Amino acid sequence: MPAKVHPWIDREQLNDSSLTIPELRQQITERFAVDSGDNGPQQWDTVVRNLSDSPEIEELWHSYVEQEWWSWAAEDRRVQGVQSIYNKLFSMYQRQERLGETYEVVLGLGCLTWRSPSGRDIKRHTIVSQASISF
After folding, report:
1. CA atoms within a 13 Å half-sphere pointing along the CA-CB vector of 71
2. What is the pLDDT of residue 18?
3. What angle do CA 51, 3, 45 make, to 5 degrees?
4. What are the domain boundaries of the chain?
């Protein structure tokens, strides 16, 4: 990422892969040392900069987003999906280990649906088997 863009970045948005495109800050405040000419205490000056006054920053940003961020975000969304499934399975594993026989893991496949003569909908798995999760 170009160094000129760093002060304008909102880190929270940069790390959020669910966004279409992270936005830059519209305004930043920069502090810089001013040479006082003597050996006294260092002087500081503050300048407020607007993004609208720096079109080159927006060009650099859009180039970075297109060339690097979008591919990172796509991969991060994929990884988060996999991580979510892993977390759910690991949570089930921990419950299975902690609760022993009071917690049963089963695998159900297929779903048979019918309506009884009284008009009640009934849904049942067609195949059910006891399962165990191991890590």
Report:
1. 5
2. 94
3. 65
4. 3-101
Instruction: Name residues whose C-beta falls within 8 Å of residue 3's C-beta, 6 or more positions apart in sequence.
Output: none
Beta strands in 1-135 (DSSP E): 27-34, 43-50, 105-115, 121-131
- Report helix, strand or coil for 120: coil
Q: Report H helices in 15-69.
A: 55-64
Q: Which two tokens stand for residue 96?
A: 């299975």
Q: d(Cα 125, Cα 107) in Å, to the nearest integer?
A: 9
User: How far, CA to CA in Å, does 38 sit from each of 27, 33, 34, 42, 73?
Assistant: 33, 13, 11, 9, 50
Dig out the tokens for 82 from the structure: 């996999």
User: Whole-model pTM?
Assistant: 0.63
Give tens-digit pLDDT for 105-135. Answer: 899 999 999 999 999 999 998 999 998 888 8
Interval 23-81: pLDDT, tens: 999 999 988 887 766 666 677 888 999 999 999 999 999 999 999 999 999 999 999 99
